[in-house]
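Hi W.,

Here's what went into the run:
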Amino acid sequence: DQQVKQNSPSLSVQEGRISILNCDYTNSMFDYFLWYKKYPAEGPTFLISISSIKDKNEDGRFTVFLNKSAKHLSLHIVPSQPGDSAVYFCAASLSFGNEKLTFGTGTRLTIIP
Amino acid sequence: EADIYQTPRYLVIGTGKKITLECSQTMGHDKMYWYQQDPGMELHLIHYSYGVNSTEKGDLSSESTVSRIRTEHFPLTLESARPSHTSQYLCASKLSQGLSSPLHFGNGTRLTVT
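Here's what came out:
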């Protein structure tokens, strides 16, 4: 039973445009969400996170939006750059103290120059 | 940049062999984790540790075992490798500062059992 779902295995976006990566979750108890980025032959690196008490968190070109009623979050990258080409994983965690992450299957983002 | 190291990066080994995947971190993190990932699939937690002499099973059942004798070292051992163990194994660590402290991952070990 997959609790965190990324239904788009791949996405191609023109350089300079906005990339939108989506993530859905089924466990309403999740209250902390993270995005990780992974290049080939490397481990995932932390990108941005959001707590369930917020609906938006922004860090430079990256913004994460959380819609708790829809159990949906999205990562916006604008403007998209060639170095953003990677696999992006959505992850979720239960409340404070339980720090195990549940990951999605990832979305491969390709930025077209 | 996180300082967490995994060796070997790639390992091809025959069925029945005993293997140990090494993971070390130099950041003084008390929490350490092992994740397993098959291509195109999510990362599954197989083991974690809250500190020295602490080891717990993760969400995905695994025939591997771990030990945590030193803070910086969290090796994973397979006593008898099988083709079903072929996967990528990712080690991670974090500070005990709650959810706001993100996981730092190593570059992984890609294991192939023939």
